[in-house]
Amino acid sequence: MQVKNYPAVALIAVLAGVFLFGCQLQQEKPTSAQIETVGMRAMQQADASAERKLMSWSAQQMPVAQRELALLYQTRPDQRADALKLFEQAARGGDVDAAFQLGEMLRVGVVGVKAAPAAAAPWYAMAAGQRHAKAALVLGMLYKNGDGVARDDAQAAHWLNAASELGNPHAMFLLSNIYQEGRGVAQDTARARHLLEEAAEHEYPPAIQELAMTVQLGDALSPKDERRAGYLLKEAAEHRHNNWNRF
């Protein structure tokens, strides 16, 4: 077999073609971070070209692009039904944040989308099962309150525990009360106190305030400590004030 020796110019042309083809593929398949950057530009700057990119990528069944486009459409009352569909497509494509956002839209309801807490629960469960802290928190609250699902204290405790382990202080606070009262779990005042302290450590104002009242009176786990109680009440007030100013 005869091996052909290609001229250097031809070889360079072939390599250049391969390089350009590789660049084209990269452009056709942006990273999640790149898509989110374009989504931010479309949202914050009303950039029409950025929106067109999201539409193009969404048509190529890119879940992150579908989610980003849905977030944009969610701000427009006449396109919220489209946002709902895009969130569902993205969630079915494996996007965890889209599953959470879909659950939020269905649970609360917005103009053009009727509230449907029962339909929201499976999407929260999908996101919570993939370690989405807020989804686990809301799912736990749904079971705790019987909102769209049958009230189930054990399920409430399970999902609030999942959110707590992921660092959500609201979940820590709610789970503290659950252990204090023994609803869906064996009553455990020490565990309840630990969770309350942890939620306060995460600067969650209701937890700081409840902890302040607890140490002010004293209990079986710690003696009365008015000095610490005063400090905690001041801290809770400051955090509430900062949150009010922020929002």
Automatic annotation (TrEMBL):
SUPFAM superfamilies documented for this protein: HCP-like
Domain of life (superkingdom): Bacteria
PANTHER family hit by this protein: ERAD-ASSOCIATED E3 UBIQUITIN-PROTEIN LIGASE COMPONENT HRD3, SEL-1-LIKE PROTEIN
Protein name: Sel1 repeat family protein
